[in-house]
Amino acid sequence: MSSDLVGVLAALASPQRLRLIAALASGSNYVSQLARELQLSRPLVHMHLRRLEEVGLVVGRMELSADGKAMRFFDVAPFAYQLTPEAIQDAVRTMEEK
After folding, report:
1. Which one of 10, 19, 54, 95 is most buried, by most CB atoms within 10 A?
2. CA–CA distance, 9 with 12 (Å, rounded to integer)
3. Do residues 39 and 80 make contact, with C-beta atoms less than 8 angstroms apart?
4. What is the mean pLDDT of residues 12-41?
5. Phi/psi zone of residue 47: left (φ > 0), alpha (ψ -120 to 50 degrees), beta?
6. Does position 38 have pLDDT exceeding 60, yes or no?
C-alpha cells in the first residue's frame, strides 16, 4: 500500500480530480456530462479520469447508447486510506528505493 499511497496522494492533489470524485460519488456518469457539469473541457476531464483510474480511485466501462454510440461511463471505486505518520514513512521508503 505504501507505493500506492504516493500515487493516490499525487492524484488527489488536483482540485479538478477532487471535483470529479465528488461528482461521481452520487453515481455513474460519462465524460461529456461531467465536462458540462464541472465546466471543464472533455479532453481535460478525460485526462483527469484516466489518472484517477490508473491509481484505482475510479473505474471506467464502455456502454452503448440507444443510438449505438459508444460511451465511457465512470464510477468511484470503493477506497479507504488511513493516513498516518507510519504510512507516510513507508511511502517515503518506497520512493527512495526507486
Report:
1. 19
2. 5
3. no
4. 96
5. alpha
6. yes
Sheet (strand 29-30) strand order: 29-30, 70-76, 58-64
Q: What is the pLDDT of residues 23-34, one digit of tens each?
A: 999 999 999 999
From CA 5, how far away is CA 60, in angstroms rounded?
A: 21
Give pLDDT, residue 26. Answer: 94
**DSSP H or E segment with residue 74:** strand 70-76
Cell output for 64: 452503448
According to DSSP, the residues that pair with 63 across neighbouring strands are 71
Task: Please provide the DSSP assignment of 54-82 as one string.
Answer: HTTSEEEEEEE-TTS-EEEEEEEPP----
Mean pLDDT of 56-81: 93
